[in-house]
Amino acid sequence: MLNFQYYNPTNYVFGKGQIEQLGKLVPEGAKVLLAYGGGSIFKNGIHQQVVEALKGHEIVEFGGIEPNPHYETLMKAVEVIKEQQIDFILAVGGGSVIDGVKFLSGAVKFEGDPSEILKKRILLTDLSKIIPFGTVLTLPATGSEMNSGAVVTIKSTQEKLAFGGSALFPKFSICDPTVIQSLPKRQLENGVVDAFTHVLEQYLTYPHEGYLQDRIAEGILQTLIEVGPKVVADPTDYALASNFMWSCTMALNGLIQKGVPNDWATHMIGHELTAMYDIDHARTLAIIGPNLYKVMFDTKKQKLAQYGKRIFNLEGTEEEIAHEAITKTIEFFHTMGMDTKLSDYTKEYSNTADFIANRFAERGWKGLGERQNITIEKVKEIVEMSY
């Protein structure tokens, strides 16, 4: 097992009715920026619950944070925070709102051009130089409620860029499974596939000695396969909603990635598809992931075979099981409402592989994956196979 440090200071507050805990969790006397997205929190009653729980705190609201939050929008919020002298930020939303708030947290006191946080992937580790924040999760998917990473889109250049650092963990996250009852079917489907792929990025690498990490990862995958279709069909079932929400958090709270190799190439390529064509994040993962496993089959087949045996109970030779495991993954994505070809989303795809390959070359991303063997040529092949 590889050496590692595991640090996660987020206070995870789970269950029905926990929004009422906000008054105790937000620092007394803090002036709060309440950040949210498109306004669904007004329709489902969450906004009212939050405001009632924060009685006694001065609240300034900032809405309109997009899915795949835009740097340009977030910089407007930075100005509000400075003008209003905000002490604490509360993200009320899904992963995009939480990611946006992580950027706000680091950008307000950043010395220099805040876009450098994204372009240079600057790690933010100094707690004295961030605005503290908490979250009320409304859409399980990204795990952003219990990690220190985030992704923000620079709309002007069509770039979706990741950043993070140990200073960007939420102080707390309130996770009430009942909030999913009002979510559209598409968002629930996306959440399941996003979490599922998060696990695969940390699991489908090569055999190693992280036996426990593998078993925890497999437990999350099996749970998502079991509850995913059912929670989309009936999000009012509390048992299904609870296991869905907790699986999404566990998929990316850092636990299963410690001491083992990781491969985030599917995400890095998928981010480009979102930036270029505005395709839902989870759907880009469903497009790219299976084709990445096909192109990188020789270096991943041992782990693919383990995945096929343990998750899908497949039998046969190692090679047969590994190939069938990819097929089963695609079938699961289809069950979860995913289209798995780029041409299902856009007819303007013919130059996509060249564009992404050139962009990666410009950034110096010449070797991705757990072995840094996903070259720019391989990236191009993966994208072309995804058409």
Can you summarize this structure?
With 387 residues, the chain is an alpha/beta fold.
The helix/strand series, from N terminus to C terminus, equals EHEHHEHEHHEEEEHHHHHHHHH
Distance between the termini: 38 Å
Poorly predicted segments:
none
- Globally, the shape reads globular
Number of strands: 8
> Roughly how much helix do the residues carry, as a percent range?
40-55%
Rg, nearest Å: 20 Å
Largest sheet, in brief, is: 6 strands, parallel
Spatial strand order of the main sheet: 1-8-5-4-2-3
Tally of helical segments: 15
Report the mean per-residue pLDDT as an integer.
Answer: 97
Q: Approximately what portion of the residues adopt beta-strand conformation?
A: 5-15%
Q: Which terms summarize this structure?
A:
six-stranded parallel sheet; alpha/beta; globular
How would you characterize the overall build of this protein?
A six-stranded parallel sheet has the order 1-8-5-4-2-3, sandwiched between helices. The protein is built from 15 helices and eight strands. Helices cover 49% and strands 10% of the residues. It has helices at 22-25, 40-43, 46-53, 71-84, 95-107, 115-119, 185-203, 211-233, 238-251, 265-277, 281-295, 297-312, 318-335, 352-363, 376-385, and strands spanning 11-14, 32-35, 59-62, 88-93, 133-137, 149-154, 159-164, 172-175.
